UniProtKB/TrEMBL annotation:
InterPro entries: Glyas_Bleomycin-R_OHBP_Dase, Glyas_Fos-R_dOase_dom, GlyoxalaseI/FosfomycinResist, VOC_core. It holds the Pfam family Glyoxalase. It comes from Microbacterium insulae. This is VOC family protein. Gene3D superfamilies: 2,3-Dihydroxybiphenyl 1,2-Dioxygenase, domain 1 (3.10.180.10). It comes from the Bacteria.
Length: 202
């Protein structure tokens, strides 16, 4: 019998469950993730917290480990850039932007990637947090578009947009598909183009 030598990936694949951060700002991090993505602590102690916004026991863990050091030049070093959370539709996604903006929580970067429209926030430790929605309404369709389209291949980062312009366009009665089309055409570009690098908070 010939052995199967081409086992590059597991036949039964695990699903993504959670991300863990070491933190010097435990309570601030708990408050931030609850505000931005509705993550509530299942357990919140002095040494750590475990947060979820669905049926899982936790989706983000925060560990207040002893003797942690502040990062140096975090926005320009290799490592995790951001985690992401997805809304089911444009209106819930934009409503969330307005809710957070009223609280003074604003994204540092906004991009229409084609398969998603995405706003990038930054948590108290300087980690990126993407809030997105799938413009195809189907992971199957958006995955196929990413794989097959020349448009994504030519510009995988996408088009910058000003979210306040999206709010104004919706208030004028434009539907989300037209807003998405105009964002892709560069009609909502902000006055200042931000860097994709994480802003340095330390």
């Amino acid at each position: 019998m010939t052995a199967n030598r081409s086992r590059r990936r597991p036949i039964t694949r695990p699903v993504f469950h959670h991300t863990t951060f070491a933190t010097l700002k435990l309570d601030e991090m708990v408050a931030f993730y609850e505000s931005v993505a509705g993550l509530e602590p299942v357990y919140h102690g002095t040494d750590g917290a475990w947060l979820t916004n669905d049926e899982a026991n936790h989706r983000i863990a925060l560990l207040a480990l002893p003797d942690l050091k502040a990062p140096v030049d975090k926005g320009h070093t290799a490592g995790l850039h951001h985690t992401a959370f997805e809304y089911a539709d444009f209106h819930a996604w934009l409503d969330n932007y307005e809710r957070l903006a009223e609280r003074g929580i604003r994204p540092f970067l906004n991009l229409d990637h084609g398969m998603t429209m995405s706003m990038y926030y930054q948590d108290p430790e300087g980690n990126g947090v993407e809030i997105q929605f799938d413009t195809f309404g189907s992971w199957t369709k958006s995955k196929e578009w990413m794989w097959a389209s020349q448009e994504f291949s030519a510009n995988p980062i996408g088009e910058y947009f000003d979210p306040d312009m999206l709010v104004a366009a919706r208030a004028e009665g434009l539907d989300w598909e037209e807003i998405h089309r105009r964002a892709r055409a560069g009609e909502y570009v902000p006055e200042v183009i931000p860097q994709v690098h994480l802003p340095e908070l330390w």
